[in-house]
Specification:
Blueprint: H1 2-14, H2 30-35, H3 40-70, H4 74-101, H5 110-115, H6 118-141, H7 146-178
Helix pairs in contact: 1-3, 1-4, 1-6, 3-4, 4-6, 4-7
């Protein structure tokens, strides 16, 4: 049961990506942000932290309530929160990377940058697929111990977080300078 709750929580987090349009929303004024005496990673961190401030507290509150209602153990609660928070980071960083690759800087209204951009659509698709992958693996393997599966899932997402941050520091900063 805790695995289903984890998947539901992660699904909600995966579809909440504020970083996917964050570079595009700068629009024609991107030069102002680029002229500030800040490194690209400082700008990226601020955009990622906004996403985390929105998603992580709600994830923790919902996980706490569901744990109390469904009677999960402390270990199960910690795994739900750990996997969920690692997904919060992954979705935020992935959305920013996608937006750096597909920025929409020419728009008349902010709605166009948010609702009609390739980066938002790709970030939603990436979030959805990143949820379907572990669900598919779980269905194929049908592990006897779901807790071990959750631990391995957390490790995989944490590794993806580290790889995404590394990519953002290198190629992401270069893409930002080119905009």
């Amino acid at each position: 049961m805790d695995l289903i709750v984890t998947m539901a929580m992660v699904f909600c987090v995966a579809l909440t990506c504020t970083t996917a349009p964050s570079i595009s929303l700068e629009g024609k004024n991107l030069w102002i942000v680029k002229s500030l005496p800040l490194k690209a990673m400082d700008i990226f961190r601020s955009k990622i932290l906004l996403n985390l401030v929105i998603t992580a507290p709600i994830l923790v509150i919902c996980s706490t309530v569901l744990t109390a209602v469904l009677g999960f153990t402390i270990l199960e609660y910690l795994l739900i929160v750990a996997v969920g928070c690692s997904y919060c980071v992954f979705i935020a960083v992935a959305g920013l990377i996608i937006n750096l690759h597909f920025p929409k800087l020419e728009w008349n209204t902010q709605v166009a940058a948010v609702k009609q951009s390739a980066s938002v659509m790709l970030a939603l698709a990436a979030g959805f697929l990143s949820i379907m992958l572990p669900i598919g693996i779980f269905a194929m393997l049908n592990p006897a111990n779901p807790v071990v599966f959750q631990v391995l899932w957390f490790i995989a997402v944490a590794a993806a977080d580290a790889a995404a941050f590394s990519y953002l520091k290198g190629r992401g900063a270069a893409l930002f300078k080119e905009l």
